[in-house]
Recover the amino acids of this structure.
């Protein structure tokens, strides 16, 4: 094969593996994400939930298991597409950095590649998060507002309304916050994963990274996900406030990122930026471990080729 054909094959493989990784992440992580969003966006003066466990129990009581998977269609389809984009973008970023550094990559290059990946991936992730957040926020409003009738039944209804009101910019409500979160978050995410598994390979004289044990890839990915959230969680809280706000600019509570952050601080102080933090950390290792385990196992088995 020519180098160009090999690069194209690698890109197609990254897309395929990322797609399956997105399925694994969504199945494992969506219930945690539902609880996280509900904790982040519940009313300050009359909270419905005392914490993550209380939120999960009440959701199961009121809506059954489907309540924890409310809005799952958007992230499932979105994560399949988004993770395909994420892993292919990461693959291309590392390829470009390797070429620029005469075929070698230092640890810092993986962190840099992760940051670059996060910036471009935000263009896909932001609309997915918006549609999902709008659906999840309806759960809170249904429980706290008498006579409230949810305006959206699925992600397509959210998308249509966002575009109707704001045009092509509609689905990108909260894009700036997503970019602000993604650059440092994905730098920590991919950089930590690569650092940990390469360190294991070095200590155990493993020259082929596809031979690193599955449990190492799981924990390296899980810890990468953990550091992702430890580094950017307050930014994510502000992003959730923006994405669960009204789609109509005329009726929004927050004029922008700074306004949302200031309002959260006025209402609850520093603790406002850590609502749902425990649930998020509980989700981080199993969900992100699952995606990296899936991707690396598919690569080890030469799937799709």
């Amino acid at each position: 094969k020519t180098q160009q054909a090999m690069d194209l094959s690698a890109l197609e493989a990254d897309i395929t593996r990322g797609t399956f990784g997105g399925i694994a992440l969504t199945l494992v992580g969506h219930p945690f994400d539902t609880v996280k969003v509900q904790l982040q966006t519940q009313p300050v003066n009359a909270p419905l939930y005392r914490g993550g466990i209380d939120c999960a129990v009440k959701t199961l009581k009121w809506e059954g298991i489907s309540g924890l998977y409310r809005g799952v269609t958007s992230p499932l389809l979105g994560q399949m597409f988004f993770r395909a984009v994420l892993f292919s973008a990461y693959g291309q970023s590392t390829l470009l950095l390797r070429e620029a550094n005469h075929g070698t990559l230092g640890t810092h290059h993986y962190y840099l590649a992760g940051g670059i990946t996060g910036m471009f991936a935000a263009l896909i992730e932001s609309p997915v998060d918006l549609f999902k957040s709008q659906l999840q926020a309806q759960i809170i409003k249904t429980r706290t507002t008498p006579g409230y009738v949810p305006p959206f039944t699925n992600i397509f209804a959210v998308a249509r309304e966002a575009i109707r009101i704001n045009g092509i910019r509609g689905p990108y409500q909260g894009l700036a916050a997503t970019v602000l979160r993604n650059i440092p978050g994905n730098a920590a995410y991919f950089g930590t994963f690569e650092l940990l598994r390469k360190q294991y390979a070095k200590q155990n004289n493993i020259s082929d990274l596809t031979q690193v044990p599955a449990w190492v890839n799981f924990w390296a990915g899980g810890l990468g996900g953990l550091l992702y959230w430890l580094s950017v969680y307050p930014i994510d809280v502000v992003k959730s406030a923006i994405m669960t706000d009204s789609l109509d600019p005329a009726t929004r509570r927050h004029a922008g990122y700074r306004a949302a952050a200031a309002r959260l601080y006025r209402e609850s102080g520093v603790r406002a930026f850590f609502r749902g933090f425990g649930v998020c950390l509980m989700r981080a290792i199993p969900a992100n471990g699952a995606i990296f385990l899936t991707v690396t196992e598919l690569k080890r088995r030469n799937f799709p080729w």
About this structure: The radius of gyration is 20 Å. The mean pLDDT is 89.
